[in-house]
Specification:
Number of strands: 21
CATH architecture of the largest domain: 3-Layer(bba) Sandwich
Number of domains: 2
Radius of gyration: 24 Å
Protein name: Baeyer-Villiger monooxygenase
Family: Belongs to the FAD-binding monooxygenase family.
Oligomer: single chain
GO molecular function: flavin adenine dinucleotide binding; N,N-dimethylaniline monooxygenase activity; NADP binding
Keywords: FAD, Flavoprotein, Monooxygenase, NADP, Oxidoreductase
Number of helices: 15
Helix content: 25-40%
Organism: Streptomyces brasiliensis
């Protein structure tokens, strides 16, 4: 990267969001952009999460870009290796390689109020950009809880998203901490290898069967020769999930039948009543993400598996102590304890127009206009921003909606001409957030009786979208200039006489 390089757009991250943004920029005729990636390859969370059994819980034909269909998905639910390979192909097919800057972790981004641009410091050099599109994603920075004594543990410790493939688990006593989406894939994958598996379960998940199978050669041939068949398959998968949304967002009581199905799924594999009681959640299904597995419950019934229905609270040498006082001697600890979702570290590195960081601006909770723009941070957008997550469908649908918004944002700036910027009006951000939070009150995520990673430290749901993907696409189809202040460069630089860097009002 050339020192002090200047580009029209800097995209942060090369997962689905970052690569999608890059493709969309090229389609808009913009080639003056870079994709800054801290790692040495594309893939985002599908590069970082390479643990045994890693796979997606959204059907393959829905968990892919509409503009880059893949007729060759090998299974209805694809594994990590196939999804990462898909993203590599996207980078190749859409000629994104020249724009990629690997080993370029963003250390600091600061807004220059005079030049109306972002100054960016990375681990590989400095550059500036008119627009920043942050696509770091909420599942990028692993979270390991602070547990007394953990630093003195003599064995191996790692997070599921930083799997140590050089460490041989065979014959080891292994502790799995956490029972989320990663844990229910890891436990069945490594249980046959280890001598003893101890699962520390703070809260049991609801687990439904995973209807997974190989996609036949005939199906793939059909999708290759007749692309509309793959489109129809994707449409059907999408439509089913759209119809399910109201149960999550408006009528949580309707989920009682689904709970009964989940309990039957458990009963088929768990015959021990005491174990079944420990594994039965005490909250409404859907409050936490519903997990899919055919192997999780059968694995927990195996003789070399212990389920501790309590969180890990202390480490004494090689002894792990749970909140209920039970102990386990282990050789290795695997943390499946999630990520910094509501306190993303990247927010500490973004300094806005008033000299405050995004983290400081969001100290009372993340909020962004239409999930994209934060007040006081001009020409900065985020992909998979606050309240854009989903509890039952594909995030790729939400990403593509945000790409529509990004594209119109860039178009509108181009129409203004010269050096200009948009800054989300605080009132517009607050109005959008109030509307979202009002809708959130009746959802299962707020009323279901659980504490989930959807909630921030204040107990506010800043993660999930309380509606359908269709509603979100409609809300992000285009930029409403009434929700933004327009900033212009100083007269000295632009030659203008009246625009001195102050706001050009756009009446709401």
């Amino acid at each position: 990267m050339a020192e002090h390089e200047h580009v029209r757009v800097a995209v942060i991250g090369s997962g689905f969001g970052g690569l999608g943004a890059a493709v969309r920029l090229r389609r808009e005729g913009i080639t003056d952009f870079v994709v800054l990636e801290r790692a040495d390859g594309v893939g985002g969370t599908w590069r970082d999460n390479s643990y045994p059994g890693c796979a997606c819980d959204v059907p393959s034909h829905l968990y892919s870009f509409s503009f880059a269909p893949n007729p060759d998905w090998p299974r209805t639910f694809s594994g990590q290796d196939h999804i990462r390979a898909y993203l590599e192909r996207v980078a190749d097919v859409f000629h994104l390689r020249p724009h990629l800057r690997f080993d370029s972790e963003v250390k600091l981004m600061s807004w220059d109020t005079q030049k109306l641009r972002w100054n960016i410091e990375t681990s590989s050099g400095a550059l500036s950009a008119d627009i920043v599109v942050s696509a770091t994603g909420p599942l990028s920075d692993p979270k390991i809880p602070e547990i007394p004594g953990l630093d003195s543990f003599p064995g191996k410790v790692f997070h599921s998203a930083r799997w140590d493939h050089d460490y041989d688990l065979r014959g080891k006593r292994v502790a799995m901490v956490g029972t989320g989406a990663s844990a229910i894939q890891i436990v069945p994958s490594i249980q046959p290898l280890v001598s003893r598996m101890t699962l520390f379960q703070r809260t049991p998940p609801w687990v439904m069967p995973r209807v997974d199978r190989a996609i036949t050669g005939a199906e793939r041939w059909l999708h290759q020769r007749l692309p509309f068949t793959a489109q129809a398959r994707r449409g059907l998968l999408w439509g089913i999930r759209e119809l399910q949304v109201q149960a999550f967002t408006k009528h949580p009581d309707e989920l009682g039948l689904v709970e009964q199905l989940a309990k039957r799924n458990m009963a088929r594999a768990i015959k021990n009543p005491a174990l079944r009681a420990r594994l039965t959640p005490g909250y409404r299904i859907g409050c936490k993400r519903i997990l899919l597995s055919n192997t999780y419950y059968p694995t927990l019934a195996q003789p070399n598996v212990d389920v501790v229905a309590s969180g890990l609270t202390e480490v004494r040498g090689s002894t792990l102590v749970a909140a209920d006082g039970s102990e386990a001697e282990v050789d290795a600890i695997v943390f499946g304890t999630g990520f910094h979702v509501t306190d993303m570290p990247i927010a500490e590195r973004v300094v806005g127009a008033e000299g405050v960081t995004l983290a400081e601006s969001w100290k009372d909770g993340m909020q962004a206009l239409r999930g994209a723009s934060a007040a006081g941070f001009p020409n900065w957008m985020t992909i998979i921003g606050p309240n854009t997550g989903l509890g039952n469908s594909s995030m790729i649908l939400m990403i593509e909606s945000q790409l529509n918004y990004m594209a119109d944002y860039v178009r509108q700036l181009g129409v203004l001409g010269g050096r200009a910027a948009f800054d989300a009006r605080p009132a517009a951000v607050q109005a959008w957030n109030h509307k979202v939070q009002e809708r959130m009150k009746r959802t299962v995520w707020n009323t279901g009786g659980c504490t989930s990673w959807y909630l921030d430290a204040n107990g506010r749901n800043v993660t999930v979208w309380p509606g359908t993907t269709t509603e979100f696409r409609r809300a992000t189809r285009r930029v409403d200039l009434a929700e933004y202040d327009v900033l212009r460069a100083p007269a000295l630089e632009t030659g203008a006489s009246a625009l001195d860097g102050s706001q050009v009002g756009v009446e709401a």
